[in-house]
Amino acid sequence: MTSLAKHSVQAVATLLALLAIVLAATVVLLDPPSGDLVDLGLFLLLSGGITVGLGVAVSQFGLPSWARSIRSRLILISVLVMVLSLANVGFVAVLMFFSQHDFYLLVVLTVFSVGISIFVAYASSAPTARVMDGFVSAVREINTGSLDTRVPVESNDEVGELAAAFNDMVERLQGSFERERDLENARKELFGAVSHDLRTPLASIRAMIESINDGVVTDEDTKARYLATIQSEVENLSGLIGDLFELSQIDAGILALHIESASIQDLISDTLESMAAQANNRRLRLEGEVDEDISPVSMDSQRVQRVLYNLVQNSIRYTPPDGSISIRAVDAGEEVHVQVADTGEGIRQRDLPKIFDRAYRADPARHRESGGAGIGLSIAKGIIEAHGGRIWVESEPGRGSVFSFTLPKSAPAAG
Description:
By secondary structure, this protein is of the alpha+beta class. It is 65% helix and 10% strand.
C-alpha cells in the first residue's frame, strides 16, 4: 500500500468514527427528528470530508511556497477553523430556525474568536519561528565550515529538545573533526619522524657499502667493523618496520593476542637481564621488585614483555648518568599493577596528556639524538588497552617519571 493510500484510509476511518460518535451523542442528548439527523450527518460528512481531503493533500504535496513557515501554517489552521465554524453555525441556524439577528450575532462572535486565535497563533509562534530561523542560519554556517555555531535553547518543549540535540550533534561533530585533524597532524609527524629514522641509517649503510665496493676500505678490521655496523643498522630498520606494522594493527583494531597464563615476575626478570647492558652503558642502576604472592596472569607474554622493554628503554633514554630505574609489580585484587619509575628529567605538565600519542616528542632534538621514531609509548598503550588494562604516567620536571599500567588477571580472549 502506497503512502497516499495508507494516509487516505486512516483519514476516512477517523472521520467515520468521529461522525458515528457525534451522531450517537446527538440522538442521546437531543433526540432530533430522523430527517434532521440525516441532514446533520450529511453536512458533517461533507465538511469533514473536505477538511480531511485538504489535510491528506497537504501531507502528500505540501503547502505553497508562501505558506511553508510555521506562522503561516498556524494562521491557515485558524482560518480553516473559522470557515468550518461559520459553516457549522450557518447549518445549525437553519436547522434550528434561528432568527437572522441571532445568526449574524453568532457569525460576529465566531469571527472575533477566530481573529483572536490568529493573533495568539502568530504571537505564540514567535519563539518557535526564532529557533527555526536559528536552525537555518546555523546549518548555513556549518555548511561553510564554522562548527562553533550553536542554536539558542529557549524552551523545554519539543523544539527546545530539538535545539539541544542539534547543539549536541554539532559539538560531537566538532570534536570528531578536531580528532581527525589531530590524527592527521600526528600522521604527518610520524611520517616525518620515520622518514628521518629511515633515511639516516640507509645513508650510512650505502656510504659504507660504497666504501667497501670502491676499494676505499681495504684492511680487514675496518671491513669487519663496517659489516657489523651495517648489520646493526639493518636490525634497527627491521625493528622500526616491525613497530610500524604493529602500530597499524593497533589502529585497525586487529592486534592479535595470544593469551596464556604467564608469570609477571619472569617477564620483569627477563627485562632486567636484557636491559642491563644499556643501563650500564649509561651508568644507570636498574632494579626490580615483585610481590611474592602474585599469581600467574592471563596475557600475551611477548607483547607485555614488549611493553616493559619500551618503558624501560624510554627511561634509559631520558635518565642522566648515575640515575636509577626501578620496575615494581604488586597484586591489586582483580588486576596486577606494574610501575616503571626513573630519576630522569621528568615531563612538563602540558606534555603529559600527549605523551602516549604517536610520534609525539616533547623535545624533538633530544629525541633524534637518542634514536627511535617516537612510537614506543603509543604501541605500549595499544597493547595494554587490548588486554583490557590501563596505562598512565605521573611526572614532574626534574623529579623523574613513573609509568604505570594494570593488567586484569583474566585478560580478553585471544583476537
